[in-house]
Design a protein that fits this description.
2 copies of one chain form a homodimer.
Chain A: E1 2-9, H1 15-30, E2 35-43, E3 49-56, H2 59-66, H3 70-79, E4 88-94
Antiparallel strand pairs in A: 1-3, 1-4, 2-3
Chain lengths: ~100, ~100
């Protein structure tokens, strides 16, 4: 399992509208083969900063099934106007031995 | 519920040792009143970068019950030697209407 973390910075005047439109965009990601689940997390300290965290079965599910499909454009068409700057995205893998 | 994300950057030569010692440090956080769960996530793109993500019942659980207790020093005593730079920590709250 892979965790994608996309840091989104939203234009301050569009925050309410972003949160209202987001669920529709999330359904586009969720329709991708290899999608597992997602969370949208709002930063407490920095207004307009969000972590969009998606669990994928593999990096390919995100990089190929999502990014190299029309879904990416549909997603951007819905959310692009809200972004104050380009998203910063990284992938993570769980450290499985992280507890005793 | 609050999500704490601590970004840890680990000295390259100490990565294996960090992952081996981490579970012991995690038990210190886990013993804090208000702790719910945690994940340690290893960045795929940047070697030595980790997201330590902890779910708390409230910000106070982290800020008071953990940070203003001897647990913080115990935690740092175990992991401090591995950090290449100070951790960057933020809190997030779930956007509950994030799906249709």
């Amino acid at each position: 399992m892979i965790l994608e973390v996309a840091i989104m910075k939203i234009k301050p005047e569009l925050i309410s509208k972003f949160e209202a439109v987001f669920p529709k965009a999330a359904t586009i990601s969720a329709s991708t083969p290899g999608y597992i689940s997602h969370e949208l997390q709002r930063c407490v300290e920095t207004r307009g900063k969000y972590f969009y965290m998606i669990r994928w079965e593999s990096i390919e599910a995100h990089e190929v099934n999502f990014r190299q499909s029309p879904r990416r454009d549909e997603f951007r068409k819905l959310l692009g106007e809200f972004w104050a700057e380009p998203n910063f995205t990284e992938h993570f893998e769980p450290v499985t031995g992280d507890r005793i």
